[in-house]
């Protein structure tokens, strides 16, 4: 069950805690500790929540790093491994800067402008 809004997510969490607090005390404690961090994506109204509520981008980057290191197989030194990984991450960063990124820089700028306006009115 997915919540469309932050308020719905909080209601669902509270219902879960009420139902399972006694039976799964440690799990509920863990949920309570990390809940606020896990729902931060609700604050990004300009960005598709599916893009920031998952770790797909990070998983894809890790997969690419593993793929590139497997091609080489055995590295002659730690420095050679670091050079390859740095080059891979720089390439990823360049893709982000040129617009081939998962979340466009324009949308991030729009979101920041919206936050700044909210801060000024608060």
Q: How would you describe the overall organization of this protein?
A:
By secondary structure, this protein is mainly alpha-helical. The chain is 71% helix and 0% strand. It has 6 helices and no strands. The longest helix is centred in the last third of the chain and has 20 residues, at 78-97. The radius of gyration is 20 Å and the shape is flat. The model has no long low-confidence stretch (mean pLDDT 83).
What secondary-structure arrangement, pairings included, does this model have?
Elements: H1 6-20, H2 25-38, H3 49-52, H4 56-72, H5 78-97, H6 105-121
Helix pairs in contact: 1-2, 4-5
Properties at a glance:
single chain; 122 residues; mainly alpha
Write a brief structural summary:
The protein has helices spanning 6-20, 25-38, 49-52, 56-72, 78-97, 105-121. The chain is built from 6 helices and no strands. The chain starts with 5 loop residues before the first helix and ends with a helix.
Cα(first) to Cα(last) distance is 33 Å
| Number of contiguous helices | 6
Spans where pLDDT lies below 50 across 5 or more residues: none
Report strand %: under 5%
Average pLDDT number: 83
Counted beta strands: 0
Principal-axes geometry comes out as flat
Q: How big is the Rg?
A: 20 Å
Order of helices and strands: HHHHHH
Helix content bin = over 70%
Largest sheet: none
**Class by alpha and beta content:** mainly alpha
